[in-house]
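@channel sequence for tomorrow's demo:
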Amino acid sequence: MNSFHLLETAAWVISAILGLYMLIDLIKTNRAYSEDVLTSSKEGEIDDKLVAEPTHQGGNQ
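structure tokens (generated this afternoon):
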């Protein structure tokens, strides 16, 4: 077994692990949230509690 074959096998294993992780995350997300929440769009709206107040406004004071 040469090093290229070993690297190819490692890449496939990593790819399979990432794919499995993504599938598990998909199932967990679908169970945790309803379809309405997952497909809703709130563009332009920012919750005030998520935005931190800047301590420095810049410019001359």
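heads up for whoever presents: The radius of gyration is 22 Å.
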